[in-house]
Amino acid sequence: MCILRGIPCLLQRLRFLEVLECSLEVLEINAPNISRFRLMDFNVQLSFGKSRKMKNLMLNNSCGISYAIDNLPSCAPKVETLTIHSSYEIINAPVTSSKFRHLKILIIYLLGLHSHRDYDYLSLVSLFDASPLLERFVLFVSPVQSKYDWFEGDLSSLRQMSEHRHHNLKNVKISGFCPQKSMVELARHILENATSLECLTLDTTPTSYRCSGDILARKCPPLETAYIRDAYKSILAVRTYIEGKVNSTVKLNLLGPCSRCYAL
């Protein structure tokens, strides 16, 4: 167990803490004004002690979604922005009775070579349910994670969770969108049940940034031809299974490969 203590006047000034690759079992932080924390080792039990202003949390390791659901509501109840980098998820997002009562921004990166091919993206609705004030949700899926089975079935086979309403969710972006069945179900669920939704962005390319279109500016990051072809297929899937769910109050941004940087 490690307890972060020190000269009281110095702890009062501490605002940001980053913990990298530690071997601790328990980490207790007693810095009352710390508001941002980054952890890169989930084999640790967190306790923020007197740190009641923790509003920005960044987690980076495998099984990050499950770890966050199981541990953070109790140890960081006032977090407002949560960013999760997960290299692998063993199970789908579990249902929880705990609440992130102040969470407004949730950003999830599913990365790595060992991502679970059959991950149920619709299970992420449990995080929406646990975050009644959630306003913005961003999901980034890496190219390897996008090795999926195409959904080309009857719309009646898609699952619905109409009893789950998300009254404050306004802005959603899914980068690396692909027509895996559960990802299609997640997008449709958001359109059907996020009653305050203003904008849904579906980026069919797994890129972290785009060029500005200026010939002198930096280009989009390189993509293999197979990913470019899949992106065009994903656009067709959005128009077939999702576009019809968009009502007049919601702006749908459907992004495909950049015509300036990518040519088949």
| Widest sheet, order of strands | 2-4-6-7-8-9-10-11-12
Query: Residue-averaged pLDDT, rounded?
Result: 81
Number of helices: 5
Strand portion: 15-25%
Helix % is 10-25%
Distance between the termini: 55 Å
Low-confidence runs: none
Tell me, briefly, the overall form: globular
Largest sheet geometry: 9 strands, parallel
Kindly state the number of beta strands: 12
Could you explain the architecture of this structure?
The chain is α/β, with parallel strands linked by helices and 264 residues long. The protein has one domain. The chain has helices at 8-13, 64-75, 125-129, 181-193, 225-241; strands at residues 2-4, 16-19, 26-29, 36-39, 45-47, 56-60, 81-86, 105-110, 136-141, 171-175, 199-203, 251-255. Strand 6, helix 2 and strand 7 form a beta-alpha-beta unit. The strands form two sheets. A nine-stranded parallel β-sheet has the order 2-4-6-7-8-9-10-11-12, covered by helices on one side. The N and C termini lie far apart (55 Å).
